[in-house]
Amino acid sequence: MSERTSSSQERKPPVNGRRTSSNSNDEENEVPEMEAFGLIPRGFNPRDYLQVVDIHMFKEPHEINKEQHHTDKFYNPKLIVRRGQPFQIQIDFNRPYKPETDQFWLEYLIGRYPQQNKGTYIPVIVGNVLKPGEWGAKITHKENNSIRLSIMSSSTCIIGKFRLYVAVWTPFGILRTRRNSATDTYILFNPWCQQDAVYLDDEKEREEYVLNDVGIVFHGDINEIKTRSWSYGQFEENILDACLFLMDKAELELSGRGNPIKICRVASAVINSRDDNGVIAGSWDNTYTYGVAPSAWTGSVDILLEYYSSKQPVRYGQCWVFAGVFNTFLRCLGIPARLVTTYSSAHDNNANVQLDFFLDDEGKVDTKLTKDSVWNYHCWNEAWMTRPDLPVGFGGWQVVDGTPQETSDGMYRCGPASVQAIKHGHVCFQFDAPFVYAEVNGDIVYLRREKNGTQVIENIDTSHVGRLIVTKEVGGDGMMDITEDYKFQEGSEEERLALETAVMYGVKKQTTQDTTYQPQKDVDMDFQVQKAVIGSDFKVTITFRNRSHNYYTATTFLSGNIVFYTGVTKNEFKKHSFSAKLEPSSSSAFDVAIKSSEYLSDLLDQASFHFFVTARINETGKILAMQKATALVIPGLRIKTQGEMVAGKQMSVTVEFTNPLAQTLENVTLRLEGPGVLRTMKKQFRQIPPNSTLIWEVKCFPKQPGLRKLIASLNCDALRHVYGELNVQIQKP
Questions:
Q1: 497 pairs with which residues across the strands?
Q2: Which of these, 397, 224, 378, 242, lies nearest to 310 by C-alpha position?
Q3: For this protein, what is any one GO molecular function term (predicted)?
Q4: 495 assigned binding-site residue
Q5: Which class is 523-631 in CATH?
Q6: Deepest of 42, 247, 434, 615, by most Cβ within 10 A of its Cβ?
Q7: 619 is in an annotated binding site
Q8: Per the annotation, does 441 bind a ligand?
């Protein structure tokens, strides 16, 4: 009895007798090989009619389809084409094809419930002419029993993996070819096609934003910009299937998968694990037990493949990891994309374009009251597409962000938001433009609570947030400044107008008029942090310029904090106060020494510090306040190669590292990868004593000729964010 009940449970009845919606590319339906029109007469023999013997897909990397469609880099045996552009197949019949009497057509199917009106069942009729951007097929060549077809797909076609059948008409029914996975066809976005929503007109940009499988992540902080390479690996084995699986995971209906706006919106939610068990679990607290530290990853491939096989969130990521994986997803599907870094990015909890920092009586920041934070840097992505849902002029680059910061329509996701709309303050246009506007445009306001509860504004810094927005240059590893894409020149008339527009469209902006605020105009204060390698001492120099004819004294307070790169303080490691005598019409400088023993035990991942300097002019009671993020210099890995570098032949790679700290590094993990050269390799080292050098040699067989990049990372509890890279030219055999 129990056996029968269990089997009946397996055959679940359809939900409320309705068919479930079609949101999986993986599932299939059964297609009949003989679809009878009615009763079949006894003498009917299918062999009397035209029969398909074989179908040639021309799917090898060196053959016409993959070359013309720019899909020859994919490490995938099936046919991959881009929509809105013709491709070729050849059909071998059992006898010569006679157009007068024989009638056949092609059928492309996707998902479990193919329907013509949903674009998931596509019959393609053979005609005489191909119309641009519409489904069709025409015969280009006939020889013996074979015909060559040129097939055009629609420029709005669903993106995914289609099954192909050839159907032959007979008077008694339709004969179809058998299900054959070798003829499956992937259809992707096409930035080379003018009718496609992701069309990009510059060939150099298409090569960079679609075809380049490595990139640069800019990190560090505004005063100390750091770079590291990231392997996107969008063409590596199984990555295309993993990316299509993400759309299944997000339950995006198949009929919506031709629309880049919808794909970006659901992908920005599924890249992070909050609320949908998505790809990467974020962790910002410096403890990465049972997972990989965010700084240890060298690329997206390991993360996507692990998620594809385990279906469980991969631990752990921070903003550049979310952005790196998102970039792989977009480029893999054919949406032009780039990774963008904003220095001093505001995380404004209440989107009022104002970051409130509360000071206590001493002039120190009150961490309990201060809820907003400024990230040293934040990485997101831009994806290129038209926006037919918005007024003209807001197409082009769109911000999409997979890092979970705030919810949007009830889920952790962000975008697509038009960069052009953000620049001009038109934040009423979907999606999430007010949040991104605040990330790059906030004012920092220093407030002090009086004993009677009134708030006094002590200082306003209008230029700290969103000071620099960058991405990798096209065709090189340098930095391209794109701040002007997001905002007008600081202090310009246009900038004020954009702000007023944003306020009109509902970005809350508190006015500073309603609180008394008269700044100290005749004294300027600035400070500089000396560059230093991790593990060494350094100094902070505070300079005052007294432009008045008065003699002032300033009670000065320096607070040094160890921070997460998100601007959240872990602890204060340095407190120093002194009285500065400011002579009339002159400048004076004061040094504060920082010893390595003061910071080393508590140092976090990115070796980031945040210094606050506040000074009260005793004679006037006015306060000067300034803050800066800074990071220590972390030594790199050295990568070398030996012998000749030829595709298909063994080559040798060595990675070297010298420990700069006065302590032994323990449980050190090294990673090395290079798309087209070697799959990710890992090695553990128990210990590296102070000042000693480790050497790791790896043998590999590079697959792809051309200029490739090797990327390595070193990771242990005491030292993270150690990277190295090397460009290598692999020769043709």
A1: none
A2: 242
A3: metal ion binding
A4: yes
A5: mainly beta
A6: 615
A7: no
A8: yes
* CATH H-level, domain 638-730: superfamily: Immunoglobulins (2.60.40.10)
- From the list 315, 280, 230, 236, the residue with the least C-alpha distance to 713 is 230
Q: Which residues partner with 342 through β-bridges?
A: 378, 469
Query: Which tokens hold the place of 492?
Result: 């310009």
Annotated binding residue at 349? no
**Count, residues in the chain:** 733
Q: Is residue 29 within 8 Å of residue 112, measured between CB atoms?
A: yes
Rounded CA gap, 438 and 415, in Å? Answer: 14
- The model's pLDDT over 617-664, given as tens digits with 9 standing for 90+, comes to 889 888 788 888 888 888 899 999 998 899 999 999 999 999 988 889
Instruction: Please name the amino acid found at residue 273.
Output: S
Q: Which fold has domain 203-505?
A: Coagulation Factor XIII; Chain A, domain 2 (3.90.260)
CB of 584 within 8 A of CB of 608?
A: no
Using one digit for the tens of pLDDT, what is the confidence trace for 346-365?
887 666 777 888 887 777 77
- Domain limits, the chain: 34-188, 203-505, 523-631, 638-730
Q: Which residues are catalytic?
A: 319, 378, 401
Rounded CA-CA distance 725/230 in Å is 10
Residue type (1 letter), 7? S
CATH architecture classification, 34-188: Sandwich (2.60)
Residue 416, preceding bond cis, omega within 30 degrees? yes
For 402-437, how does the pLDDT look when each residue is reduced to its tens digit (9 = 90+)?
A: 997 777 677 788 889 999 999 988 888 888 888 898
